[in-house]
Amino acid sequence: MKDKSDFLSEWLDTNKIPYKKNYEIKYYSWIKAGGVIKNYITPETIDQCVNIVKFFKSNDIEFYIFGNQSNLIVRDGIITTPIINLSKMNKISFEENEKGLNIFCDSGVSIPRFSKNIIKRGFTGTEGLVGIPGSIGGGVCMNASSYGNEVCNYLKSVKVIDDYGNLQDLNKEELSLKWRGSVFKENKFLIVYVRFFISKNKYIGEKLTEKNSLKITEHRKTYQESNLPNLGSIFATKNIYKDLSKKNFIFLFVYFIYKILSVYYFNFNKKKIQIFKSNFVKIYLKLLGLNKYENFSSSSKTLNCLVNKGSNSSTEAINFLRQFKKESKNCLNFENIILHEID
User: Fold this and answer.
1) What kind and span of H or E run contains 252?
2) 145 and 251 share one domain
3) What is the DSSP string of 287-301?
């Protein structure tokens, strides 16, 4: 008797929908760890997406949607739950008129590509997004933001497929957008297409947008992890140390010392600022009971980033994140996605 994975594979082959068998997450995810997905589906058209969702609904098959796997960690072992990934749906086009710039974007377009194209056209407002490694679809779902820029700032409408396989057009007002959140975090709508519009008054010229982008990129290199495989921000926070100060008096006191020393190192001893940051990350890890993990830990540049120090097994990383989440549950909003119970 055929299992569900083989049944699905046959259907995908019959309908000529591209997919990968036995997709090893450890080679492709940003954290470089995790198990093997039996069916990793990569549709190329909206019609294929509609057919897939309808097939899943009619056969009572659960599924997950993956973006660029930049904030996602999956358990070790064999994953039989099918995964949909829209990286092959990556067309982007632009129409400029006297009112501004219209952008038409498949959800599989990477956020850096989206941002760089706008920067080259001299429109400001997306320079801070260059370093976000996710896709437009994932960025809309999480309302991703960086350096004061949000993916959804200039969003006009999205085309989605609901869990019955119906196409819907939703305008910005229907998305319940909030900081690092949207209506899509509460349901399984598949975002397939997004339209943006940037007003002409945001045009400042390519020289200035390139200058802004370069400044942010240099700042990222100094203060954010770039050397080790990582999951980006663990928590949705603008200042993890300040938020942790709400935990108890000890964390309040440590934050007070951290803030004073930050001013000193930033203004008078920048050459040693990385040593200062690394030492405080170690202090916080010890206070949180997270210094026992060997292969996965916070980046030496910031407590708010999980890094892989050399393992392709995700079990320890998941344990680290779950403990961190537990220790900070009243102070911080968790942002990474952990799939530890997926079949």
Assistant:
1) helix 249-268
2) no
3) HTT-TT-SSEEE-SS
Distance, CA of 133 to CA of 147 (rounded, Å)? 14
Q: Which domain holds residue 289?
A: 226-335
Q: Report the alpha-carbon distance of residue 162 to residue 188 in Å, rounded.
A: 7
In this predicted model, what pLDDT tens digit does every residue of 125-136 receive, in sequence order?
999 999 888 999
Question: How far is Cα 3 from Cα 293, in angstroms, rounded to an integer?
Answer: 38
Order of strands across the sheet with 305-308? 230-233, 305-308, 296-298
Residue 280 token pair: 């405080």
**Lookup: tokens for 51:** 């057919």
Confidence of residue 138 (pLDDT cuts 50, 70, 90): very high
Each residue of 4-44: pLDDT tens digit? 788 899 999 999 999 999 999 999 999 999 999 999 999 99
DSSP 60-111: T---EEESSSSSEEE-SSEE-S-EEE-TT---EEEEEETTEEEEEEETTSBH
Contacts of 312 (CB under 8 A, 6+ apart): 26, 32, 33, 34
User: Model confidence over 165-223: pLDDT tens digits?
Assistant: 999 999 999 998 888 888 988 788 999 999 999 999 999 999 999 999 999 998 888 77
Total-model pTM: 0.90
Dihedral sign from CA coordinates of 306, 310, 315, 319: negative
Buried b (16+ CB within 10 A) or exposed e, 276-296: bbeebbeebbebbebeebebb
CATH number at residue 96: 3.30.465.10
Does residue 186 share a domain with residue 103?
yes
Q: Does residue 340 form part of some domain?
A: no
